[in-house]
Please model this.
Amino acid sequence: MGIRLPPMQALRAFEAAARMQSLTKAAQSLNVTHGAISHQIKSLEGDLGVRLIERAGRGIRLTDEGERFSRRVRTAFAELTAAVNELAARANPRQLRVSVVPSFAARWLLPRIGRFVASHPDVDLDVRATSANIDFANDDSDMAIRYGFGEWPGLGVEFLLEDRFFPVCSPRIANGRLPQRPADLADYPLLRSGDELWKPWFEAAGLDWPEPERGPMFNDSAHLIQAAAEGQGIALARTTLLGTDERNGVLVRLFDIELPSARKHYLVYPARTASSSTRSCTSTGSAARWASCASPGRWRGRPWASSCAS
Model:
């Protein structure tokens, strides 16, 4: 016969008190009285036969057993919360959760969302902007758009978009005196990013220059492009992140020298989605419909992706 678990109310009271190191704050967070919290914890200690909390001046502190137990209880509550949230999310087959890096979301995806929604009114799109590595085992995202070399073992991976590099700047930089040839870049501030290195472009332009070590550095490509638009320097832009800035005259492209990026954009999804990719467009579940109807082979022709290669 299994061991009887303590009441949930007692576990919640103990977890809150252990996390906040205060019975008063725990009572406030659970909207109960100080006495109720104290009673629940004493009841829990009686059920377990172990002292979990002891007085420390005007506050409390965990015993060694209480410290160990609190970590396990906190983990268990986190797992339970995640399971409930995932179950609730899966109960909505219309929802499609897509994880993208912030710069790609801001510069490429957001301008196209309206067209996607118009073409797929039965899909509730949920865009999650994050630079963290996607972990489908612990994340409820249905799929992700990532920039890399296409190597994500154990996942479904489909090529989506390629990128090309070229210098851009504001037409207002240096009072409108734009560089006329690549060597003129020596007279302008070069904006830097870990994702857009200058040296490969220098080589393509016939310049034997090292990677710049001075100048503003940005870890977000969208910020890099915005800095260039504000006239703060010359940036090495990527096709997918230029948006409408060139068309609207916010940025101008310098020279006719482009360099293909070694990395590309890929649609990445868990194996469970890949196995359903042959379902029809009317199959249940937004993720299956995305993989089937909006996979890159067909998706690149969809309204929201129609300008991605232009």
Remarks:
- The first strand starts at residue 53 and ends at 56.
- Confidence is low (pLDDT under 50) at residues 275-310.
- The first helix runs from residue 8 to 20.
- Residues 8-90 form a domain with the Arc Repressor Mutant, subunit A fold (CATH 1.10.10.10).
